[in-house]
Design brief:
This protein is an alpha+beta fold. The chain has one domain. Helices cover 21% and strands 44% of the residues. The protein is built from two helices and five strands, in the order ββββααβ. Strands 4-3-2-1-5 form a five-stranded antiparallel beta sheet. The longest helix is centred in the last third of the chain and has 15 residues.
Length: 100
Amino acid sequence: MKLQVLNLLPTRQNHSFQVMIEISQTQHQFTMTVETDNLCNQPLQIIQGDDKFHSLFQWNRELAQKIYELVYQVYNQEELNFPIILGKFDEVQEPAINLS
């Protein structure tokens, strides 16, 4: 299933972004936040997705990383042209646990 980012917009909350994606003609949206901390006197940007993001991408870490990179670019005021196709989204089921 094809995954594309339809749009990525800042929200009214500081350092927060609304991400709209489409996976095989089904649209999803979630919120990403960016915090800046210092590590060894160097600024470090920490990007965090909401629970919906983590649930949706728990088995697709590489695609999640691409979305983090897009958020980083928008946060740093880089111009992007949407939609952006990121690749193939695989629905992987969690392995069943046998307790016997």
